[in-house]
């Protein structure tokens, strides 16, 4: 790996293309190297993971809305849409829109946390959709997905967006564009222009994850994917992007991030070096914000020592800056303590999540968020006794550069009314690569089976799993079948609501 210095240049300072971050990203995307078997296995795992959470969300309103919009854009020999028959194809950018929304809706797929937040699995829907429409093979698809992860993870390591209230799709969109460029084996120049366009159009604010969190949280990564596909299409037709997009005098760094005096160090692999970033990412066992994963596991453990929740006087969670200010009481969001809050808000409230996990000893992607569950009087009483505190040591662990030492959990102190305390801590989730029972292929397939139970047939389940496990050798015809189908009569197409399309 090599760290690239990225800073703002005045217009009178000429910065050569080869020295620009977007060009270095494009060079990585246009560089071919040997396929690592561990990386191959993890790509397969993540395609299975994406499909499982997408199928589980097919009839949720945002997903039905996105699918209805995609269905309005049919295309012969286009791309497939989750749930729909493989015989029906749609424009790839709209298929990416529908599939990306389905993957993101339950907040239940993979994650990478560093200087910023990310769900690198959001790279897969647009890259797969383009692969299907452009008649690409399994090896081509692998190249695209591995590149998307590589760019995404390394941008997240180096450049903090949330500090300046920018949403994290600003790193996702250029990664998706780079992944599509790698899939199509485009020249460095074309990928360079596509990446610059993708950066330019994808900067948005974090209000989408603040206050009353709406369904846009699910749409946002899919929107980025759609923008990335369109950026690549324009670049392939010879259109350029704002340049230099990162280093320019009026660039995103100068006016949307740290400012004109900013200096970032962005790591990227050397030309010819293996792209291994996907191995640093981790999926979720529980359908909630990643920073709650270890705390859910800790709550399940601490439950065993509690007999009466009414005896609890207070619960304090000592955790990282990110956890405290994003999903904790440091966010100062009254909605995070509101029993009438949306699911999207509740899955960003560690106070709610910890209370339910402590009482139930489990977490379920549907039942744990049901309105009657959130409005249980005893849960509300417990929930409102919970607060978070930023602990510098947990913040340090969160930002640890060594992936084997990174931790995203916290220490919990439960104080009872009689003055006794129960204290425990957990650094990483049980399912984390460094956890007590790291997710393996069997766990990904078990998750798929659990989330798709009674939604798809056994034959469809076996067909899809068999296909994806042979990913590296799939033909272009087989790539077009890399989709999970359900009985179309059981799909909610949100037909009662009409839009423009």
TrEMBL record:
Residues 20-262 form the MmgE/PrpD N-terminal domain. Pfam families: MmgE_PrpD_C (PF19305), MmgE_PrpD_N (PF03972). One of its GO terms (molecular function) is lyase activity. Residues 286-472 form the MmgE/PrpD C-terminal domain. InterPro entries: MmgE/PrpD_sf (IPR036148), MmgE/PrpD_sf_1 (IPR042183), MmgE/PrpD_sf_2 (IPR042188), MmgE_PrpD (IPR005656), MmgE_PrpD_C (IPR045337), MmgE_PrpD_N (IPR045336). Belongs to the PrpD family. This is MmgE/PrpD family protein. It comes from Fluviispira sanaruensis. The lineage of its organism: Bacteria, Pseudomonadati, Bdellovibrionota, Oligoflexia, Silvanigrellales.
């Amino acid at each position: 790996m090599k760290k690239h210095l990225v800073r703002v240049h005045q217009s009178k300072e000429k910065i050569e293309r080869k020295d620009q971050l977007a060009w270095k990203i494009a060079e990585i995307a246009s560089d071919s190297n040997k396929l690592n078997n561990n990386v191959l296995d993890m790509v397969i795992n993540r395609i299975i993971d994406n499909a499982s959470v997408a199928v589980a969300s097919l009839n949720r309103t945002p997903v039905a809305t996105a699918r209805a919009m995609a269905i309005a854009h049919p295309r012969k020999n286009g791309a497939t849409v989750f749930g729909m028959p493989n015989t029906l194809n749609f424009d790839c950018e709209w298929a990416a829109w529908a599939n990306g929304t389905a993957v993101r809706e339950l907040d239940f797929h993979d994650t990478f946390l560093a200087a910023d937040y990310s769900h690198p699995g959001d790279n897969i829907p647009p890259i797969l959709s383009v692969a299907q429409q452009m008649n690409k093979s399994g090896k081509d698809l692998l190249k695209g997905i591995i590149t998307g992860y590589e760019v995404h993870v390394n941008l997240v390591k180096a450049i903090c967006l949330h500090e300046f209230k920018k949403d994290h799709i600003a790193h996702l969109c250029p990664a998706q564009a780079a992944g599509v460029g790698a899939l199509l084996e485009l020249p460095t120049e074309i990928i360079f222009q596509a990446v610059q366009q993708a950066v330019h159009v994808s900067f948005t604010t974090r209000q989408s994850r603040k206050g009353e969190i709406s369904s846009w949280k699910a749409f946002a990564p899919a929107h980025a994917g759609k923008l990335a596909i369109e950026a690549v299409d324009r670049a392939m037709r010879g259109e350029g992007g704002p340049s230099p997009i990162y280093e320019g005098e009026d660039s995103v760094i100068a006016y949307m991030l740290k400012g004109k005096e900013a200096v970032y160090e962005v790591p990227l692999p050397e030309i010819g070096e293996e792209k291994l970033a996907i191995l640093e990412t981790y999926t979720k066992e529980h359908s909630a914000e990643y920073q709650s994963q270890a705390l859910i596991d800790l709550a399940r453990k601490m439950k065993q020592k509690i007999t009466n929740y009414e005896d609890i006087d207070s619960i304090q969670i000592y955790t990282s800056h990110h956890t405290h200010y994003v999903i904790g009481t440091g966010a100062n969001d009254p909605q995070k303590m509101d029993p009438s809050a949306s699911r999207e808000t509740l899955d960003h409230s560690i106070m709610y999540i910890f209370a339910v996990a402590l009482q139930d000893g489990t977490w379920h992607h549907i039942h744990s968020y049901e309105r009657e569950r959130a409005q249980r009087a005893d849960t509300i009483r417990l929930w409102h006794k919970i607060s978070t505190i930023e602990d510098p040591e947990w913040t340090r662990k969160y930002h640890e550069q060594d992936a084997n030492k990174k931790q995203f959990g916290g220490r919990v102190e439960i104080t009872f009314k009689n003055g006794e305390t129960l204290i425990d801590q957990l650094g990483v989730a049980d399912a984390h690569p460094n956890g007590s029972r790291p997710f393996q292929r069997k766990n990904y397939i078990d998750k798929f089976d659990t989330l798709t139970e009674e939604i798809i047939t056994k034959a469809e389940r076996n067909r899809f799993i068999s296909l994806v496990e042979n990913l590296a050798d799939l033909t272009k015809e087989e790539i077009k079948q890399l989709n999970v189908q359900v009985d179309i009569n059981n799909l909610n197409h949100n037909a009662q609501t009409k839009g423009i399309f």
